[in-house]
Design brief:
Elements lengths: L10 H38 L3 H11 L10 H18 L6 H5 L3 H21 L7 H12 L3 H8 L8 H30 L3 H11 L3 H11 L1 H16 L1 H15 L14 H14 L5 H24 L3 H5 L3 H25 L1
Helix pairs in contact: 1-2, 1-3, 1-14, 2-14, 3-13, 3-14, 5-6, 5-16, 6-7, 6-8, 6-16, 7-8, 8-10, 8-16, 9-10, 9-11, 9-16, 10-11
Amino acid sequence: MATSQPQTDHATPVAWTTKLQGKAQELFPGIAVAIIVAVTAQFLAEHYATPAMLLALLLGIAVSFLGEEGKTVPGIAFSARSLLRLGIAFLGVRVSMVLMMGLGWDLIGLVVGGVVATICFGLLVARLFGHKWRFALLTAGSVAICGASAAMAISAILPRDERSEERLIFTVMGVTVLSTIAMIAYPILVNFLELNSTQAGVFLGGTIHDVAQVVGAGFSISEQTGDSATLVKLMRVAMLAPIVLVASLMIRSFAELPKDGARPPLLPSFVVAFLTLAGLNSFGLIPTAISDFLSQCSRWLLLTAIAAVGMKTNLKQVLAVGGAAIALIIVETLFIAGFILAGITLLT
């Protein structure tokens, strides 16, 4: 009588390798398309002085049919979620607490206060515009911290529903457009108010939403203003992890759970990675070459992710968010600008 031979352990690595190859083949078309859109957006941004994030989003929306059906769907979904989280994690290498301490406790307090006050303000006034706490936290957090990156990080801890995607797309689009307007308008305001280099840097870094626009606005005035603005902006970026942690704790404690009963994560793994890299960089444990490399990786990963998010977008649903949503995000933007400007007047 023949007896079956037991399966050897050698089959396990082969099975895993085959499975990984199959998964890679499944994801490759969508990832490749997202990268092509991101590269195109960067090329256009360099030649037409337009934010790459905004162009990636708009170009993604223009080819949104790729995210609806066909071989590209799995890879686009992977890019919009996993590459996004990896990009936010790598963003931690830009943070250095040692450099930030050089601003002084009064300006540190002003910047931190501006972030917290803007989020509280957004949560308070959202109902006046007909929106609930989820949209308020998403918009106010993105305005207060670091624009599109913060919006995508905060969306990861919010309970999911059928409108989660359109709220995220609208917020990313809104803060990117407003950040671009601020990049042009705020330097004019700085010159009109006759702010010195430090004051101008704190104002620009403390109010403009996205890092790239802060750099553009700051260095358009002077090198010293650009350096100060970038440093202040990175302090707001450093607020991403603690804000996400506090928001996550409050959501788990007080928010109504979705129908499936699933709780959002306490602290997503990509935020833990962000904190770890920020801590290592603050203590000078990451070589400059590696830090620069990871920073560039972060920028490209986020650009690819936002292109993929655009390809998953139904533009009609996004536009259906309405004028009240536009008004809310504008009011939040004006609030943080007024708060920081008032603080600069009092402290300097």
